[in-house]
Write a structure and sequence with these properties.
Elements: H1 5-41, H2 44-63, H3 69-83
Helix pairs in contact: 1-2, 1-3, 2-3
Amino acid sequence: MPITQSAKKALRGSKRKKVQNDRRMKVMKDAIKKIEKLVKAGSKDDAKKALPAAYQVIDKAAKINVINRNNAARKKSRLSRLTK
């Protein structure tokens, strides 16, 4: 447990950031799963329509360092390969 006042404050901030990061990660994973589910069901046209929204959440996650930019690029590449 933190002892100093600044350490206590940093802990509170990191808890808030963790909640936001977890929320962003869940939104990203849901978007990816939605596309994979559409492709598996055989509706690639719908998957292609959902692709820009997935790209947007992946890019936002990479922008605020929830995931690494190379990880984001890899996810986007795999999604585009799925929908072709």
